[in-house]
Specification:
The complex is a heterodimer of chains A (about 325) and B (about 525).
Chain A: H1 5-35, H2 42-48, H3 51-54, H4 72-76, H5 82-112, H6 120-141, H7 149-165, H8 182-215, H9 221-224, H10 230-262, H11 271-290, H12 298-320
Helix pairs in contact in A: 1-5, 1-7, 5-6, 6-7, 6-8, 8-10, 8-12, 10-11, 11-12
Chain B: H1 2-15, H2 18-37, H3 45-54, H4 58-65, H5 74-103, E1 118-124, H6 128-138, E2 143-148, E3 154-160, H7 163-188, E4 190-197, E5 201-204, E6 213-216, E7 228-239, E8 246-257, H8 258-263, E9 267-271, E10 277-278, E11 283-298, E12 304-308, E13 312-313, E14 321-327, H9 335-341, E15 342-350, E16 353-356, E17 359-362, E18 371-379, H10 396-400, E19 404-412, E20 417-419, E21 425-441, H11 445-464, E22 468-476, E23 486-494, H12 501-530
Antiparallel strand pairs in B: 1-23, 2-3, 3-22, 4-6, 4-21, 5-7, 7-8, 8-9, 10-11, 11-12, 11-21, 13-14, 14-15, 15-18, 16-17, 18-19, 20-21, 22-23
Helix pairs in contact in B: 2-5, 5-7, 6-12, 7-11
Classes of the chains: A mainly alpha (about 325), B alpha+beta (about 525).
The complex binds protoporphyrin IX containing FE.
């Protein structure tokens, strides 16, 4: 299998370009947040029709109306404020970034004539693309989350930057152990699940901040007043996880099938397998928690955050520090 | 007595509560973590020893706790067994509940539909009975129940998504089945490794002793293995010229199963990474490969001995290898004399030699220009000491006590030889390839797969299907001008956590109201004509 060097080079350029575009979008989102001075009191927002323009006082902390978690921006403004305009520009930029990013992966795949997720650099890049696409889908469905842009893009940009520098790997054919069609199924499922869980994890984390603030207005005041209502954050986290959990289950099952053909056993408690199992159990715990009285909200969100922490740990620590059978998915 | 039963009942309730299950799940996750963070004996015993040497204080404590064998430790087993007891305790009543509810009629219509999360109201020119009938027609696929209330209102209760609970139950039962199948595999399975020379070397699955290492399940004693033989006739590897990275490995294999052994037939196959040989009960895998140097020793009395022993790769990229090829002096029967004149040829083997001064390294994994850098040791190899010996090294304590002495050191290329002080000559003849094979046997793995797929299917069903309810109340309208009209109220409620019923409810409600309007129109037309 030859490597088409020109294609690989273009792929690298597009990768860098996508990263720059995402950073641009991140900055716009940041400006969008800076522009929003106040978390608008929800009731006033709804009642006054256009609280954004009437300029509700910044310190106003109206209690969240039970059963009326209407988003002030959506409910209030037919006219678009400056900060929302910035947000929408950021989203357009993100769409552009995603296209360039997808191009980079496509060219990488063409350059090496295989799926573009054969080493950690490519894996990280693919996860980021899934996360970005997930984010775009969520914004489309649930415009209230527009304000989350900066928080979602930040970890993505960090992950992309790390992949593109520390973990960068030159275009090369797969090593024999990875030459199997299972790489298509197993790894893509893992990529999709990880990318979606990234967005869900961020949403849960922000949900915690926002609901802490709902209980006590002094906590996370600067952050929380820029966030959508807790209910919206919770919904994004829950839906993301409900989508990703079966995909993750599928990734583990196909991984086991592949392990049976490659290593002689379907399950051997290799570090990567073990941590994947731990993450699975934690996400199962999340879904259980959602059905358990007393765990439904705050605690469940913590569980989701823990699940995501374990996923990140699996990606970095287990690949790079703990030597196992998976380590050959390697770096450099 | 009654008290004891009460305690038991409470314990059981506690154990099978959702909260306990949740806590046990987290304990399971937590307990598995050291299995990834600490070296595990089942994966790599030498790493465990290394770790213990580095942590003399902590090591023994961790050892006592079973932290180097997490997945075989009693506390890990305790957690998952408790979890599964809890699961059974939870599943049995839920299954019974489900069986009962599967035949139950949808619950009555709540008094105040406007209180529900989803609600709609309209007034139509139909009778309550016609309203309910029309709505009934729109709710195909729903389980419905029509009732008439005391005040003259007609109601319809509809429910859908019973499959969700089925999916959930399938999911949990399949988890149980998965655990059982996993355990059966661990009891009755085995795994063994063996290195075979790729020049027609042969391996037969005849018992423990044919393996280099063997890991039996608890109920496997190594007798009664499925009979089969394999013969490795050649080995090819393909490398990337510039990076030296391997592109593919393949072992040229002949094999015979039980019937073939009787008939003396061999069948051909090719063994590659990711392409095991699957026989009736066993699978044969290609794990790795390496080189075995061929040494011929000519003893002073003219007798020759040739040995081809595998050396182990130190660098997976260049296959620079190390090892020890051992010789017994021929014709020596006296044990004492033998112990003074045993030979070992140890050192490095490079498939493609590269000399840095006289230091040997390897520049490529293919045997293009092999060379060895060897020490020849003479004396007592320690075979009689009763200690087990690695085939890759000499017994270092023999060297330290001076019973095994280095008598030569030299670099050799194929055909070159060195001569010892007593006239013994050691010749390097070249290299052979070897393949390392693994044989795996797991009689339950198909059941693990089936259970896992059921887990996935159950999960998919239970996460995508919503248990949801839909109600209609049609009340005769009161007030002047409204005679003959009916107030229709629609309400909806999803019984499970998922958001997202809103859209479906809206669609349904619109469907019902449109159907009502249409019917009202046709009824009116019919009435007009008949009058
Ligand atoms: C090996 C242990 C267990 C695992 C890995 C596990 C996993 C899961 C998962 C992933 C779900 C969400 C998917 C679904 O809704 O079907 C779930 C749901 C559920 N599990 Fe478990 N479970 C376990 C043990 C238990 C036990 C012991 C109980 C009872 C005490 C239980 C009761 C339930 C219930 C009631 C639901 C439905 C929750 C809902 O309606 O959303 N599970 N389980």
């Amino acid at each position: 299998m030859p490597v088409h060097v020109t294609l690989a080079t273009y792929s690298d350029w597009m990768y860098a370009a996508a990263l720059v575009i995402y950073i641009g979008a991140l900055l716009l989102h940041a400006a969008q947040l800076a522009g929003r001075k106040a978390r608008l009191p929800e009731l006033v927002g709804v009642a006054a029709g256009s609280a954004e323009r009437t300029g509700a006082p910044a310190q106003a902390e109206a209690p969240v109306a039970a059963g009326a978690p209407a988003d002030p921006v959506e409910a209030a403004a037919p006219g678009i404020g400056r900060s929302e305009r910035l947000g929408r520009m950021a989203v357009s930029l993100t769409v552009l970034g995603a296209l360039v990013h997808a191009g980079s992966l496509l060219l990488r795949g063409l350059a090496v004539e295989r799926v573009p997720w054969g080493n950690m650099y490519e894996f990280g890049s693919s996860i980021c693309l899934v996360a970005v696409v997930t984010w775009l889908v969520v914004v489309r469905r649930e415009p209230a989350v527009l304000r989350l842009g900066a928080f979602v893009l930040l970890p993505i940009v960090i992950l992309l930057f790390t992949s593109g520098t520390l973990l960068y790997t030159k275009a090369a054919p797969l090593m024999p152990a990875l030459q199997s069609y299972w790489i298509v199924v197993h790894v893509s499922a893992a990529v999709i699940a990880s990318g979606v869980l990234l967005v869900a994890g961020v949403a849960s984390l922000l949900f915690l901040a926002r609901s802490a603030n709902d209980r006590d207005g002094d906590r996370f005041a600067r952050l929380a007043r820029r966030l959508p209502a807790a209910g919206v954050l919770d919904r994004v986290a829950y839906r993301g996880t409900v989508f990703a959990f079966p995909v993750w289950t599928f990734a583990i099952i196909t991984g086991a099938i592949w392990a049976e053909t490659a290593w002689g056993r379907y399950w051997g408690w290799d570090p990567k397998e073990t941590v994947a199992f731990v993450a699975w159990v934690i996400y199962a715990g999340y879904l259980h928690a959602r059905a358990t009285a007393g765990w439904r909200n705050g605690r469940a969100a913590w569980v989701n955050v823990a699940g995501f922490a374990v996923m990140v740990f699996n990606l970095f620590f287990v690949n790079l520090v703990v030597a196992g059978l998976h380590s050959y998915a390697g770096v450099g | 007595m009654g008290e004891a039963i009460g305690v038991l009942r409470n314990t059981w309730r506690g154990l099978t509560s959702m909260r306990t299950a949740l806590v046990l799940l987290f304990l399971l996750a937590l307990a598995a973590l050291p299995g990834a963070l600490l070296p595990q004996r089942s994966l790599n015993a030498s790493k465990v020893d290394e770790y213990r040497a580095q942590h003399p204080a902590l090591g023994p404590i961790l050892e006592r706790l079973g932290a180097f064998d997490v997945f075989a430790s009693p506390w890990f087993a305790a957690i998952y067994l408790l979890l599964f007891v809890s699961l059974v305790g939870c599943l049995v009543p839920r299954t019974l509940d489900y069986a009962r509810s599967a035949r139950a009629r949808p619950v009555g219509t709540p008094r105040n539909l406007a209180r529900l999360p989803h609600h709609r109201a309209a007034t139509v020119g139909l009778t309550p009975d016609e309203v309910v009938e029309t709505a009934n027609d729109r709710l195909r696929g729903w389980r419905v129940e029509r009732r008439v209330e005391a005040g003259g209102a007609h109601t319809l209760s509809a429910e859908k998504g019973y499959l969700r609970e089925v999916g959930n139950l399938v999911f949990h039962f399949a988890l149980l089945a998965l655990l059982v199948a996993f355990a059966v595999g661990k009891l009755f399975g085995y795994e063994g490794q063996v290195i075979v020379l790729a020049n027609g070397g042969q391996f037969c699955n005849s018992g423990l002793l044919s393996y280099d290492s063997f890991r039996p399940g608890l109920r496997v004693d190594g007798t009664d293995l499925d009979p089969f033989c394999v013969r490795v006739d050649g080995f090819t590897a393909d490398y990337d010229e510039t990076t030296g990275q391997a592109r593919s490995f393949s072992a040229d294999l002949a094999y015979q199963d039980a019937a073939d052994i009787e008939g003396g037939r061999w069948e051909r196959s090719e063994l590659r990474v990711n392409h095991p040989l699957r026989l009736a009960g066993d699978r044969v895998y290609l794990l790795g490969h390496g080189y075995a140097p061929i040494f011929t020793v000519t003893f002073p009395d003219g007798q020759q001995r040739t040995n081809t022993i595998q050396w182990r790769p130190m660098d997976p990229q260049t296959l620079l290898s190390e090892g020890a090829t051992k010789f017994d002096p021929p014709g020596v029967t006296d044990a004492q004399q033998r112990r003074e004149r045993q030979l070992a040829v140890t050192g490095l083997l490079a498939p493609t030699a590269f000399f840095d001064g006289s230091l040997l390294t390897s520049s490529f994994a293919e045997p293009r220009d092999p060379a060895v850098a060897v020490d020849v040791l003479r004396g007592d190899l320690g075979n009689d000491s009763g200690r087990g010996q690695s085939i890759f090294t000499v017994d270092q304590s023999m060297v330290e006590t001076g019973r095994l002495v280095r008598v030569a050191r030299q670099n050799l290329r194929p055909g070159e030889e060195l001569t010892l002080d007593d006239g013994t000559r050691v010749r390097f003849d070249g290299v052979e390839q070897w393949a390392s094979l693994q044989v795996s046997h797991d009689p339950a793995q198909l059941w693990v797969l089936v259970s896992a797929l059921l887990v996935l299917a159950g999960l998919g069903v239970s996460l995508t299907i919503k248990r949801r309810r839909f109600w209609v109340r049609a009340t005769p309208a009161q007030g002047h001008d409204l005679d003959g009209r009916t107030v229709v109220e629609l309400g909806g409620l999803a019984r499970t956590d998922q958001a997202g019923y809103g859209e479906e409810f809206a669609r349904l409600a619109t469907g019902v109201t449109t159907a009502l309007d249409e019917r009202a129109e046709t009824e009116r037309d019919a009435r007009c004509r008949s009058t």
